[in-house]
Structures are given as structure tokens and as C-alpha cells.
Amino acid sequence: MASTPQTLRPPAGSIRASRGRDSMGSWPLVDRAAYLVCWVVGIGLCLVTAGIVLFMAVKGISYLRPSLLLERPNASPNQATSGGFLDPIEGTLLLSAVGIAIAAPIGVWLAVWMSEYQRPAWLARLVESGVEMIAGAPSVLLAMFGLVLFARPVLGFLSQTSAGGSVTGKSFLTAGAMMSLIALPLVVASTREALMQVPAHVREASYALGKTKATTIRKVLLPSVRPSLTSGVTLGIGRIVGDTAIVVILLGGTPQLEGAGGAPVLSVLRGTGSTLTSYVRLNSPAGEGNAHEKAYAAAFVLLLMVLALNMLVMRFSTTRNMDEPSRWRTLTGSLPWIR
Amino acid sequence: MPPPVRRIVLDREPSVVGAPPNGAQSATTTATRPATSTLPGTGTPPGTGTPPGVPASATGERGSGGIPAQTQPSQVQERMRIEGVWLAYGERWVVRDVSLPVRRGEVLGLIGASGSGKTTLLRSLNRLTEITAGAARAGRITLDEQEIGEIEVNSLRRRVSMVFQQPNPFPMSIFENVAYALREEHGERGARRRKRRSREELMPAVVDALRRAGLYDEVAGNLDHPALRLSGGQQQRLCIARALAANPEVLLLDEPCSALDPISTATIEQLIVGLRESVAIVIVTHNLQQAMRVADHVAFMHLGELVEYGHSAQIFDHPREQRTREYVSGAFG
Predict the structure, then answer these.
(1) How far apart are CA B318 and CA B298, in angstroms?
(2) What is the ipTM, given to two decimal places?
């Protein structure tokens, strides 16, 4: 009579349990030391990150009042009357919108051209290094260039012209234009990377149905890379939200949104203002506002915005069906309308 | 439910009805031609070449089993003709002086080892080779007696459609995948005056294409579901439906089953045999059993040359060429 499967066992004493990895005892000393460094560095980084977030959270929450989010700032040396930071929040949102509205379409166009056309080759190489150069340029440099560029009388319609006829070059439009440059490389890189992952036979399948290249890009390729495109755009917004130099130099630094007059929307866009970053800088102990409590509160709000954007990116880039082997499916599996 | 196993192929007769015994089994064997005469464009069209020493029994008198009458194509009609075609990528001629007929009512199988040029030849039939920089062609390929180089490329590709090795539905719904093939391109005749065709307008054609591809019953209730959620075999049948949607005259299949499981493969093979009635089919396959099961005529290519062309049964049972014999018996490849 055979034993039942439950009682069937190898002879006792012959079982060797696997520990999952080899024991460090057999490693050379150098490897053990290097392994230890990995641990120290990894834990250290986590501690620094946690420290920043916790410090900002404790400070921020202790100073944050609902009224701060709803009151407009005043340039006052007295903290009691200097108001909240409603305008900087609005300024951050407005500047991000302007910047990404310029960067997203141009970035997608560039990415499509660089991955699907690449002709002439020398121009493609030139554009590629140009994008890389912008990605590496300090934003303060872009801001200075923007100030020189937009102060030209021809471009006066983008900002305000003073009574003497000189153009300020400072407005949401000019700052947004320069902000689009720092978001552009992220949009280009993520879109292009995703386009290069779409297999050649998918394009060919569309051509084989008698479709032109333009239709293929519009109807097949861009929908396929939508998740990557979205996360590129989100990362770009994150860069804009966090940048200070361009705001300080090109947005005018007025605490409140100050319109340039004229048509309602255009007036604000051509006007000056501030963002959370410039507000924090101004009110921090390093600035002249001398309202460091409000600076902490504003910095906390800024941190929350950036963290929220990062989580959005993770949501976009995490695919929902990692079990499917083909890369093409992993790529398209995260498309919003596929569930 | 797995589809029933198809007929025993070794017992089947050549399915070309009414073809003269000699004409049907004639072959262009470039290997036997003197090298000096194999200039581009001078290839002898098949059917006119002299069959060198074909035993009359090679293809004609097969076993008495035969294939069921309903799967017999009612008529065979030549749609495309490949005449002395040479194809190159850069300096390398990967297809050399190949001549073949492509007929509606039969399946033409292209077999051969990797690098034999069969996929390149297939892709040249709808000018898909042209998207590769440096690709060149010599010789004539005609569709209904018109040189394909003179047909506008996008309308050619609607008439000569293609299915690929990997199932590649587009990231849209099942309905949209098929409808995509039906929508006219901008600049196409009449497209500008007509507005984008509505779903109701396209629905009958979409349903018809899905029916022809044997997929409709499985997806009828969820045409709006994403195509990428279908199984691999269903995805490939959707690709076939998409390729059939614009009513092409020729359907090119590039190893359509190599990424699929045996059951899906059997379903698609059955589908291919059923479709040859209405559309000329060319299939590239590495799978000799598959070529035996689905192809009516088989062309064996080796290193860019057409070694042997003939009825499926003849190629597999009585190959004339030594290289064919070695390949079909598994000596190389």
C-alpha cells in the first residue's frame, strides 16, 4: 500500500534547507566592506530624506493656518499684517500652466521628429545636443538670457512697457517661456524613449494597412506612448514648480499678482507676481521679508505639491500587468483606457 | 474547444482544379539556369519554363483520400506575378532572380532557412521593403498586370495587406482596430469631401471582417474592449481581420503562427485554408508541417535563390533538387 502524498517525505537528515543566498562568511574582506558601505549609504540617504520631510512637516504644520492659504500677501515688516500666500500659490499654478503649455507640444513634436524622422541626420544630432545642453544649463543662466531677450522692444507685448518706453521683460509669459525650456528636456526624453520602445512591426502593421506615416504617428504611436508622455509632462511641471531663479529674475517679484491692464486674462499673463519658491526665499531668514514662520508653512505646501506630482508620475509609470512578458504589452498595458 | 484536426495532408490531392498536369507543376529553377542569363528582369515566368525531368507521378496521382469538396477552391486566378525579381539591402542582393505566381484560390507557401530571403520577398510585394533605407529592387512585380511600383503605395497596401509574426493590435478597442483599416487617408480620392465615417456606417464592414477572421463570435459582445486584452491567438486573428477589412486582393502572412500555441495555430491554419477562396494568400513559414498543411504550392528558397517551386505534395514527397530534399528531410535549416 503506497503512502498518501501527505506522508511522502525524503528520509530524515537528507534535507538541506536553502538560505536564499550565500553566506557572507565566505566573502573576501573587500566585498564585505563594500557591502557594508552599500548599507550605510542606503540607510543614510533614507535618513536624510526622512529628516527633510519630517522637519518641514513639523515646522510647516505648526505654522500653517488655513488663513495663510486664503489671504493675499502684503509687503509689511510686521508679521501680523503681512498676510498669507494665496497669490504665490496662484502664481505657481499659473506659471506651471504657461510653462507646460509651451513645453508639452514642442517637446512631443521634437521627440516624434527625433525618433521617427531624424532627417537630415546632422540636424537631428544638433537638436539632440541642443536639448541636452538646455537640460544641463543652470536655470539662472536661462533667466538672464530671457531677461535680455524679452526686454527688447519688439517683444514688449509679452510684458509691460514703462512710461519711458523701456520694456521690463518681466511677466508670467516671459517667465513661463523660459520655464518651458527647463521642462522641455524631460518631455522630449520620456516621449522619445517610449517611442523607441514601440516595436518596428507595429509601425509596419499600420503602413501595411495603407496608412501614411503621419496617420501612424497620430493614431498609433502617440496613443501608445501616452503614459510616458504624461509622466514626462508631470516631471516637467515638477521642475517648474520647484525653480526659483527664473521666478526671481523674470517674474518681477511682486508679492501679489499685478496685472498689466487691458484684457482680463492677458492682463494677468503680462503682469508680474510671485510663486511659492520666491515667497519662501523672500520670507526665509536669508531674505528680507523676515517672516520665517510663513516661509516654513509655504515651503511645506510646496513640498506637498512636489510630492503629489512625484506620486502621479509613479502612478503613470507603474504598469498594471507586469506578468505579461512582452515589452510592448508592458508599455501599452498602462494606457489609461485599458483596464 | 480545440478545433478539429485538419485533414491528413499526405493523402491530399493538389487543389488546383483544371490545371494542366504539366503547367501546374512546372518550376523555375534558377539553380539550373546558366549564370549569364540571370540578369534582372529576364527571369522566365513560371508556367512557361520547361519542367526539367518532372516525373509525371510526382504531383498528379496522389492518394485517393483528397480534401473535402467544400474546401476545394472553385477557381484559381492569378493576381500577382513576380518576374525575375532581385532585392537588395545596400550592396547585398538578398533575393536573386525569383519568379513566382500568386493566385487567388490557393495558398503559396514560402519555405527556406533563415536568411533565404523569403521574408524580404514577401515584404516587397506590398513595397514594405521600401521603408528600409538602401533597399533596391530589380525585375517586375505586377498586381493584376500593373507594375506595383506604378501604383500609389498606400492604395497598393490596401490591396495587398499583411499580417506579421508578432500579434500587433493597436492600443485601441477591437472595433477601432478594424475600423482603422477602413478609414480613408487624407488626400485619398473622395476622402476630403466626405466627413469621417461614423460607427454605424463602418459597423457592417467591421463585423464582416471579424467574421471572416473567425473572431466575431468570441468578441461580439465586447467590441469596445481593448484589443490588447485579447489572448495571443485572438490578437492574431484580429490582425487578420484588420488586414481583411479593406477587402484586399492579396494577403501576405509572415510566419503568422510562430508566436502562438498549437491550438491557436490550428485555428489560424484552418482560417487560412478557408480564406484562399476569396483572397490570394502568400505565407512565409519556418514550420514545414504548417507548409504541408496549408499551402497548395510551395516555393523553397535558399540563400536568396528560388531552388524549387511546385505543388506542396511534390515538394515534400518528391523534391527534384538535392537541396530541397535535404531541407524538407531536416538535414539543414
Answers:
(1) 13
(2) 0.75
